[in-house]
Amino acid sequence: MPKTGGRSRRALIWVLRISVSAVLMAVLLANIHLDKALPKHRTVGTLLWLGAAVLVTWVGVVLSSWRWQLVLVAFDKRVRLRTLIRHTLAGLFVGNVLPSTIGGDVVKISRSAKDTGSASTAFASVVLERLTGFVTLPVLCFLGFLLHPALFGTKGSWVALLTSGVAVVVLGMIIVIAGHPRLAGRFAGRENRTQFIGAVHIGVAQLRRHPRQAIKILVVAFVFQVTSMLVFYCAVRALEAPVPFLTVLAMAPAVAMAQVLPLSLNGLGVREGMLVILLRGVNGVTHSQAIGIGILWLAATLIASLAGAIPFAVGHRRGDDDTSIVDTAFEEAVITEAAAP
């Protein structure tokens, strides 16, 4: 069982995130005008676009689980896709719906640890699955700007490019440290909690030895992130905002990277603030529309996450959520709790 001090610390972090979200949303909503945020033609089409966003989110769950399965293969672990889909849905439900201080990734680790027989392997697989997803986001951002060079003249373009550039540098450093035998590699095979760092090194080393497997993972990760951009685009279409898909491709990755920072509750406030900054001056998108797009994006994620209620309840009843399997405090220091799969 986690120590009382650890529980109190996580509870405090949770309260701070709620406070940050509340302050940011209060500032953003102070200047919102509903007549400018809502679509002019409020028909069934708006609901259909929201429904499409939910469906695409579920497709993303399957792709994310498939990517996770491919990562586990690098550790010579074979887990059925439907099992990983259940774990992913349960993690989404905990991370996005339940008012819990235990992140969705902890649920994924604790449950997959029983499937793989190794807590460190489960931990490393989730870390690498996340990293491969983040690797593709800057690529999509740069691709969007290359395909639509007129975006370089918008006010928020430098924020999107800077965010992606910083992400490339940080990810490069993480990959170098994780793959270096004298850095993360020196922890491989240890029995204390540093074994988790060593397991990540083993995973990176395995992918280096099997480049075809690494390419498969990155291709699935790329397709998954494209589906995330489609969810964003569905929110744009639902509000009839004048944002073309190439603009979404260039700007949305920066939002996706910013919203997973452990600053707020499910990225609420950070996501909407980034959208206001990035979309200002883009085809006449209003402050109110930018906030509305962010809220609809979150709504689609929350609705889709409700599908994880049954997998979570069944696994929880069986005792699959034994968070003592991993050091929760250590896990939360390494993995960013995401709002999207």
Average predicted confidence as pLDDT: 81
Output the structural class. mainly alpha
Net shape = globular
Distance between the termini: 27 Å
The number of helical runs is 14
Return residue spans where pLDDT drops below 50 for at least 5 consecutive residues. 328-341
Major sheet summary line: none
**Extended strand count:** 0
Q: Give the % helix.
A: over 70%
Strand content: under 5%
Radius of gyration: 20 Å
- N-to-C order of helices and strands: HHHHHHHHHHHHHH
Total domains, how many?
A: 1
What does this structure look like?
The chain has 341 residues and is an all-alpha fold. The protein has one domain (4-31, 47-334). 72% of the residues lie in helices and 0% in strands. It contains 14 helices and no strands. Mean pLDDT is 81; it is low at 328-341.
SSE arrangement:
Elements lengths: L3 H26 L4 H4 L6 H31 L6 H16 L7 H13 L2 H29 L9 H23 L15 H15 L1 H28 L6 H15 L10 H10 L7 H19 L3 H9 L10 H7 L7
Helix pairs in contact: 3-4, 3-6, 3-9, 3-12, 4-5, 4-13, 5-6, 6-7, 6-8, 6-9, 6-10, 7-8, 7-10, 9-10, 9-12, 10-11, 11-12
Short note summarizing the structure:
The chain has 341 residues and is an all-alpha fold. Helices cover 72% and strands 0% of the residues.
List keywords for this structure.
single chain; 341 residues; mainly alpha; 14 helices; globular
